[in-house]
Each structure stands twice: as structure tokens, then as C-alpha cells.
Amino acid sequence: YILKDNFKSLQGKSTEDYASGLLTARQVNKLRVIMHDNFERGSSIREIEEDIKKNLILKDRFAIDKDGNKILQISKEERPIAIARTESTRLAAGGILEHYKNQGVERVTFAATISERTCPICENLNGQIFNINEAVGLIPEQTHPYCRCTWVAL
């Protein structure tokens, strides 16, 4: 699953995208290898974070407001852990859905990790049942990084 994923939310396509901190195609390919190799080794999130720090030169990530001003979303120092956690969750969720589809599973349950860090959206989705095709792309919830949710087959 990792080897064919496009890392759409991280990859830029233009000079403006790269200036705002999105990754080049070359960086995305490096990240794909980092994630694949670390998943294969069963690495921890911290080990993935260190591998990202060592192998990718990340920039601060900015959004552009309606007036064209740059708004800092996340610093380059915080990005390795954010990418390690969020992408691990996203790739694991996508991979498990692909596995479930291959096994003939038709419905899945959204399973949130409930704690003081759980966002209200994920808390409300916890326990909800989805047809497997509707579930694709729902984890991580798009409004926040560091998601810790997963899918459970029915």
C-alpha cells in the first residue's frame, strides 16, 4: 500500500507549493521509502521521526490566507513527528482497508483512541459503521494531524 500511495496532502506541484513547505516529488519518494522500510522493521513512531529528520530537509509549513499572507501552520522542527504520526496512521488505515477488501469485508467500524487528545470529530465518529468503500480516506480526519484512529472489520 505504501509503495503505491501518492502522499497527496504533503506533495506540492508548483513553486508556490514548495515555498509554503509542501514536499517535492523527490522528497515524497524518500518519505515513501522511509515509511515502507520502517513499517517493514516494525519501527516506533520516534524511530520513524528520527529517520525523517535524518533523510529529509523539511521547511516550515505555511498556509496562505485570502489576502495572500503566509500563516505558519507548523514549524520545520515539529514537522518530523507530525509526519511520522499522521502518515503512519493514514498509511496503516489505508493498508488495513485494502486488506479487508481483499478478504471480502464489506463494512468497518471507526475506532477512535479516546483520551484528552481525541478531537471532537473523531470522538463523534467512534463506533460508527461504514461501507468499506465509504471509509477510504476518512482516517486521519482531515482537519487535524496526529490522528490515532483505525478501522475494525465487522
Would you kindly provide a brief summary of this structure?
The chain is of the alpha+beta class. The chain is built from 6 helices and 5 strands, in the order αααββαβαβαβ. The chain is globular.
Q: What's the arrangement of secondary structure elements?
A:
Layout: H1 15-19, H2 25-41, H3 45-55, E1 61-64, E2 70-74, H4 79-102, E3 107-111, H5 120-125, E4 129-131, H6 132-135, E5 150-153
Antiparallel strand pairs: 1-2, 3-4, 3-5
Helix pairs in contact: 2-3, 3-4
General description of the model:
- By secondary structure, the protein is α+β, with helices and mostly antiparallel strands.
- Helices cover 44% and strands 14% of the residues.
- It has six helices and five strands; from the N terminus they run αααββαβαβαβ.
- It has helices at 15-19, 25-41, 45-55, 79-102, 120-125, 132-135; strands spanning 61-64, 70-74, 107-111, 129-131, 150-153.
- A hairpin with a 5-residue loop joins strand 1 (61-64) and strand 2.
- Helix 2 runs antiparallel to helix 3 and helix 3 (45-55) crosses helix 4 (79-102).
- The two termini are 21 Å apart.
- The model has no long low-confidence stretch (mean pLDDT 94).
